[in-house]
Design goal:
Elements: E1 4-10, H1 20-28, H2 42-63, H3 70-87, E2 92-98, H4 105-114, E3 119-124, H5 134-146, E4 155-158, H6 166-180, E5 190-196, H7 200-204, H8 210-225, E6 231-236, H9 249-258, E7 263-268, H10 276-293, E8 297-300, H11 308-323, H12 353-377
Parallel strand pairs: 1-2, 1-3, 3-4, 5-6, 5-7, 7-8
The structure holds ligand L6N33NVT and fe (ii) ion.
Residues 11, 13, 24, 27, 33, 53, 57, 60, 68, 70, 126, 130, 132-133, 196, 198, 210, 239, 270-271, 275-277, 382 line the site of the ligand C=CC1=C(C)c2cc3[nH]c(cc4nc(cc5[nH]c(cc1n2)c(C)c5CCC(=O)O)C(CCC(=O)O)=C4C)c(C)c3C=C.
C-alpha cells in the first residue's frame, strides 16, 4: 500500500463575524445550493443575498460566541480519526477540506499533493447523501481532478454516504439513550429527529436521494435504540420562499405540543458536529417555540463530535472503503439537468424566438426581484 490519506469533507463556517458575508457569498455562489436558469445571474444574486442576509446571520453567530465551531470540531475529528486508524494498524494522514470556508478543499488538495499521497479515501462528514452537500463537494473535486494530471495518479475512492454503518447507528443510539435517561419519564418521551431541510425540487426534479436516506437513517437509529418511545422526523433550516421538505420542525413541535406531548428529546441527524443550526436554531429558537407551546422538557442530544464509538465508526468506514472496489466521482449521483436551451439567432423585429428569449430574461429578472422581496418580507428561521 502506498502513502495513505483520508480527506474529510465538510461545509465550513465563518470563524469570526467578519467572515460571515464572504462565507455566505461562497455558499450562494454554488449552483448546487441555488440553481438559476443562467450562470451569469449566479454571482450578482449571491452578492445580493449574502449582503442582505449577513446582518441577521452575524447576530446568530454572535449568540454562539462570535463564529462557527465547525472548523475546530472537524479538525479534532480528523486528529481523533488519525489516532484511531494508526491504532488499527494504518499509517495515514487525515486532511480537512471545507466547501465554503477555510480550510478550503483546494487547500487540502494542495497539501495532499505536497505530501505525495498515493491512495486516498474521500469521506464526507455528512452521513446521508444530498446533491447540496456531498454532491457539491464531489463535483468540485471532479473538476479539480480533471484539470490536474498529478492528481490523476492518485488511487482514490469516495464514500457517498454511510448512514447505515452499524457503529454510527450505535453511537447515535447511545447518545439518545443517555439523554432519555435524564428526562422525567424516559419510557414515554418523544424522540424528535430534526434533519436539515432541502427544497422539495431537489428530491422531485433533481433526483436527490436525501429524503429517503434520512427517513431510513431515523428508522435504523430507532431500531438500534430498541426502546418503546414514539418518534417523529421533521426538517429544519429552510431558506427563501420555495417549498422545502415537510413537516417543518417548528410546525411539528407545535403539533406535538397540541397533541399533549410534554417531553421532547431532540436529535440532529444531518450533521455530526455542533454548529449554528444545533447551538442557535435548535437550542434557542426551537426551544423557545416548544416552551411557548407547552412542552415541559426540551432536551437536545449532542452531535457525535469526537465521541469514541463514532470515531471508531468513521475508522471502520475508511477501512471498508480501502478493501471495497474504488468508487469514482462519476459513479455518484449527479443532479438531473432540466436546463432549457434557448435558441440563439440574429436580431429580427416581431415575436421571434429571440424576442421571446429576451422577454423571458426580463421576466426572470422581475421574478428574481419579486423573490427577493418575498424573501425579505417573510420571517424565515435562518434569516
Ligand atoms: C439555501 C439553501 C441551503 C441548502 C439547500 C442547504 C443544505 C444543507 N446544509 C447543511 C449543513 C450546513 N449548513 C450550514 C450553513 C448554512 N446553510 C445555508 C443554506 C442551505 N443549506 C445557509 C444560508 C447557511 C449559513 C447559516 C446562516 O446564514 O444562518 C452549515 C454551517 C453552519 C456553521 O456552523 O457555520 C452546515 C453544517 C446540510 C446538511 C444540508 C442538506 C442536507
Ligand atoms: Fe445549510
Amino acid at each position: 500500500m502506498g502513502r495513505l490519506g483520508v480527506l474529510l469533507l465538510n461545509l465550513g463556517g465563518p470563524d469570526k463575524l467578519e467572515d460571515v458575508r464572504p462565507f455566505l457569498y461562497n455558499l450562494f455562489s454554488d449552483p448546487e445550493i441555488i440553481r438559476l436558469p443562467s450562470p451569469l445571474l449566479q454571482a450578482p444574486l449571491a452578492w445580493l443575498i449574502s449582503t442582505l442576509r449577513a446582518k441577521q446571520s452575524q447576530q446568530n453567530y454572535k449568540k454562539i460566541g462570535g463564529g462557527s465551531p465547525l472548523r475546530r470540531i472537524t479538525e479534532e475529528q480528523a486528529q481523533a480519526l488519525r489516532s484511531q486508524l494508526v491504532q488499527n494498524g494504518h499509517d495515514v494522514q487525515v486532511y480537512v477540506g471545507m466547501r465554503y470556508w477555510h480550510p478550503f478543499t483546494e487547500e487540502a488538495i494542495a497539501q495532499i499533493k505536497r505530501d505525495k499521497i498515493e491512495e486516498l479515501v474521500i469521506l464526507p462528514l455528512y452521513p446521508q447523501f444530498s446533491i447540496s452537500t456531498t454532491g457539491s463537494s464531489f463535483r468540485l473535486l471532479d473538476r479539480i481532478w480533471q484539470t490536474d494530471p498529478e492528481l490523476q495518479k492518485i488511487k482514490y475512492t469516495v464514500v457517498p454516504s454511510w448512514y447505515e454503518n452499524s457503529g454510527y447507528l450505535q453511537a447515535m443510539a447511545n447518545l439518545i439513550a443517555n439523554k432519555l435517561d435524564q428526562v422525567k419519564d424516559p419510557s414515554t418521551a418523544h424522540v424528535f429527529f430534526s434533519a436539515h431541510g432541502v427544497p422539495v425540487s431537489y428530491i422531485e426534479e433533481a433526483g436527490d436521494p436525501y429524503q429517503k436516506e434520512i427517513e431510513a437513517c431515523a428508522a435504523l437509529i430507532m431500531q438500534k435504540l430498541n426502546r418503546p418511545n414514539p418518534y417523529k422526523l421533521a426538517y429544519q433550516s429552510r431558506v427563501g420562499p420555495v417549498e422545502w421538505l415537510q413537516p417543518y420542525t417548528d410546525v411539528a413541535i407545535e403539533e406535538l405540543a397540541a397533541e399533549g406531548v410534554k417531553e421532547l428529546v431532540v436529535v440532529p441527524i444531518s450533521f455530526v458536529s455542533e454548529h449554528i443550526e444545533t447551538l442557535e436554531e435548535i437550542d434557542m429558537e426551537y426551544r423557545e417555540i416548544a416552551e411557548h407551546a407547552g412542552i415541559e422538557t426540551f432536551a437536545r442530544v449532542p452531535a457525535p463530535d469526537t465521541d469514541p464509538t463514532f470515531i471508531q465508526a468513521l475508522a471502520d468506514v475508511v477501512i471498508k472503503a480501502l478493501s471495497d472496489r474504488p468508487i469514482p466521482f462519476s459513479a455518484t449521483i449527479q443532479p438531473q439537468k432540466n436546463t432549457k436551451l434557448y435558441p440563439q439567432e440574429r436580431w429580427e423585429w416581431g415575436m421571434t424566438p429571440s424576442a421571446e428569449v429576451w422577454n423571458g430574461r426580463l421576466a426572470m429578472i422581475g421574478f428574481l426581484i419579486l423573490l427577493l422581496e418575498l424573501w425579505l418580507g417573510r420571517g424565515q428561521i435562518l434569516q
